[in-house]
Design goal:
Radius of gyration: 20 Å
Number of helices: 9
Strand content: 15-25%
Number of strands: 14
Distance between the termini: 20 Å
């Protein structure tokens, strides 16, 4: 379950969860030489992370990574992909410099990467970098799905410059769309919207506003123009989880020729993130 595969022509990295890792290794050995095998008890690691107890890190680790996050679903996803520290924000991604600096200091290495995952968090991240005595770099991740996607290519055993290059390149071909509920009426980018409507934003610009969540998601996907080779991922917000199953069935029927994946993000300020890769 939860399998991620990335790589280049002759080298592939696989991250997967299994009750029997031996079967995974036996299957993989049929296709080539196995290298850098790392098997961890994710249930135990997750429990330790949540309880803030000491986690046994890889002795070969030379780089750490921090994520600014909002939503229990995204927190869990970041943990499962090997994040070292999470700066949790309850409503909006607007952490304090002190919170970020504390997370930097708690990292086990002197080389740290920060995923701000929101443009409004960039200033606090940069100020924390200036105050830190460690070698810290801030990636220009503008959303939690983008930060999460970049984690797919993260390797704590690689140096910070190699990791930064890999993380930045991984999201180049992705499109991220945010659907939020308007708290008041207004006009932006010549698009008029009313209080209670669903607003669709891509690349910091409002594209349209709709009265229903399902219509706004369908129009967002159509605007992104996915093809049969695309993967669409929906990250549900905290408020949309009640109708999640019904919405998923409608979307699968509507885009039956395209692979779709659904995740619970639990974010408080975005009803749904739509990601196409």
């Amino acid at each position: 379950g939860s399998t991620v595969i990335i790589g280049i022509e002759n080298y592939i990295k696989i991250h997967t969860h299994s009750e029997d890792p031996g079967k995974i290794l036996s299957a993989c050995i049929q296709y080539g030489e196995l290298m850098e095998i790392n098997i961890e008890n994710m249930d135990k690691q997750f429990e330790e992370f949540v309880n803030d107890s000491e986690v046994k890190f890889n002795e070969k680790q030379i780089c750490s990574i921090i994520a600014i996050s909002n939503g229990n679903g995204f927190n869990d996803l970041f943990i499962n992909l090997g994040i070292d520290k999470i700066v949790k924000c309850e409503k909006t991604l607007n952490p304090s410099v002190e919170e970020i600096l504390n997370s930097i200091n708690e990292c086990q290495t002197d080389y740290v990467i920060i995923l701000p995952n929101e443009k409004n968090a960039m200033m606090a991240c940069n100020l924390a970098v200036e105050e830190s005595l460690k070698n810290v770099s801030v990636l220009n991740t503008k959303s939690m799905p983008e930060g999460l996607a970049s984690m797919m290519s993260y390797n704590s055993e690689l140096d910070i410059n190699t990791n930064i290059s890999n993380l930045e390149n991984y999201t180049n071909d992705m499109i991220f769309g945010a659907i939020s509920l308007a708290s008041r009426s207004g006009v932006m980018n010549n698009i008029e919207y009313k209080e209670g409507e669903y607003i669709v934003v891509i690349n910091d610009a409002i594209l349209f506003a709709e009265t229903s969540l399902i219509t706004s998601i369908e129009k967002t996907i159509s605007h992104m123009k996915p093809d049969s080779d695309s993967l669409i991922t929906i990250y549900w917000g905290d408020h949309s989880k009640e109708n999640q199953s019904e919405l998923e069935n409608k979307l699968i029927d509507r885009f039956s020729t395209i692979e779709m994946e659904f995740q619970y993000g639990g974010q408080s300020n975005i009803e749904a993130w739509v990601v196409i890769e």
